[in-house]
Inverse folding.
């Protein structure tokens, strides 16, 4: 069987993505590729999606699977942490399939388009920004051997060097896009599962109902979807949900928006429609702590919401202000209390070892997370990546390892002045131990995961922690790819 285009992700493991918490980590589907695939199918192309994350045989298996499909075009996607992996895949594919153009998309090439094409010669063309319309136009032009330099949203190899075409405007009417092509992933709703803190029932599915974030946190890169908040209509979302329930028997959803509750009326309208539809559904979402209120959470629970992730970032007021998130400690405390009132599980994500942090501020974060009654504590290492406000000046604040391959947020790459990378790693481990080794938390975890699941998660964390402590720390300060 041959197809017009294969869309693929690079290989990575749960340990690479979730670090010490790999046993409780999620297996997330490549929703961006399902959106691209749907747009291509709507325009008459045959498409296959291959997710390297789920490939047991690793890179060789993925390359062999792509080659067997004999695609006329190959599309790869990469975040900063796996741009090297995508480059290796492209190099192997080039040897096997010399004629198929290899197109790279995703956040890394969108952030550093010229550098990506200059550093990684196996990519033929780069898609910059949102890719649905760009990729369709590009494939049509390549088929007709037309000039692609006039297509907005590309970085190309021209006779006079690497060039950017005019920028592509953000997609304003998201309802014009087709439903994601879930059928392109084999056994989609069983292969991909949410994290332990989000999980309620199976089968489960991931969806996205909006794009764009208007905030400018110092650690975040929002270059692909921009700072203009855009959302699918409630009618579109209900159509999407109905399809998942009827076609796949879905009983649980992870709504993977950056902030589902940014538009208060939209989320209330959606919840009321879900209540009226009487689907046997539970769901989880992410929200800013200053975007939820008592009435909203009450409606969300009635509509099936059972878990919310909040980006709380720090338990120290000065550090929180440094992150430019626009929230206060009281906002986090209030959100946790209201969520608990409505019997919705609350998870708080926090940063360990950011700029201007110290041992005392990390202690503040641990104490704060314990006091406000969270169900789950999810720490991340502060990770400088291209496109974030802090990236170009980060070495003013401490020691940084800026090798792209380390930019996973699950391994320490930055240490503020007065601390070492090893110190940051050890405080990360200590924060997890302090939060989770408490009777209430252990009891709740045992209910969620079962005794066997709890032992498995604990044993995995212990082994990963020992390996991390024993692993020699790197001292490189690399700003560009090798």
């Amino acid at each position: 069987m041959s197809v017009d285009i294969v869309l693929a992700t690079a290989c990575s493991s749960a340990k690479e993505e979730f670090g010490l918490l790999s046993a409780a980590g999620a297996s997330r589907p490549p929703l961006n590729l399902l959106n691209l695939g749907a747009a291509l199918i709507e325009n008459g192309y045959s498409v296959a999606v291959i997710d390297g994350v789920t490939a047991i045989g690793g890179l060789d298996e993925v390359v062999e699977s792509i080659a067997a499909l004999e695609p006329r075009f190959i599309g790869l996607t990469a975040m900063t942490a796996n741009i090297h992996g995508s480059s290796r895949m492209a190099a192997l594919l080039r040897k096997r399939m010399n004629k198929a153009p290899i197109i790279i998309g995703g956040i890394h090439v969108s952030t550093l388009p010229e550098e990506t094409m200059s550093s990684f010669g196996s990519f033929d063309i780069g898609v910059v920004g949102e890719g649905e319309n760009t990729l369709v136009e590009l494939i049509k032009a390549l088929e007709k051997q037309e000039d692609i330099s006039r297509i907005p949203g590309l970085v190309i190899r021209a006779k006079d060097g690497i060039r950017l075409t005019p920028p592509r405007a953000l997609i304003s009417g998201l309802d014009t896009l087709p439903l994601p092509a879930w059928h392109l992933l084999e056994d989609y709703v069983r292969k991909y599962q949410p994290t332990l803190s989000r999980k309620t029932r199976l089968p489960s599915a991931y969806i996205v109902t909006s794009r764009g974030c208007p905030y400018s946190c110092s650690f975040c890169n929002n270059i692909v979807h921009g700072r203009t908040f855009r959302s699918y209509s409630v009618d579109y979302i209900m159509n999407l949900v109905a399809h998942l329930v009827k076609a796949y028997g879905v009983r649980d959803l992870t709504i993977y928006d950056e902030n589902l509750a940014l538009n208060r009326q939209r989320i209330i309208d959606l919840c009321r429609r879900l209540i009226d539809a009487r689907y046997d559904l539970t769901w989880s979402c992410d929200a800013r702590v200053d975007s939820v209120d008592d009435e909203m959470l009450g409606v969300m629970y009635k509509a099936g919401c059972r878990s919310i992730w909040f980006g709380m970032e720090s338990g120290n007021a000065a550090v929180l202000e440094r992150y430019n998130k626009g929230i206060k400690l009281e906002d986090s405390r209030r959100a946790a209390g209201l969520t608990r009132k409505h019997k919705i599980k609350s998870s708080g994500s926090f940063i360990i070892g950011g700029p201007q942090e110290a041992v005392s501020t990390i202690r503040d974060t641990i104490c704060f997370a314990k006091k406000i009654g969270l169900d789950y504590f999810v720490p991340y290492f502060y990770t400088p990546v291209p496109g974030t406000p802090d990236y170009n000046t980060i070495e003013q604040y401490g020691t940084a390892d800026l090798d792209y391959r380390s930019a996973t947020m699950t391994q320490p790459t930055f240490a503020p002045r007065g601390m070492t990378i090893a110190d940051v790693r050890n405080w990360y481990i200590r924060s997890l131990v302090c939060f989770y080794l408490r009777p209430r938390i252990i009891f709740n975890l045992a209910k969620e995961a079962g005794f066997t699941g709890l032992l498995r998660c604990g044993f995995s964390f212990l082994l990963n922690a020992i390996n991390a402590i024993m692993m020699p720390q790197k001292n490189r300060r690399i700003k560009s790819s090798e």
About this structure: The chain has two domains: 5-164, 193-470. The radius of gyration is 22 Å. The first strand starts at residue 5 and ends at 9.
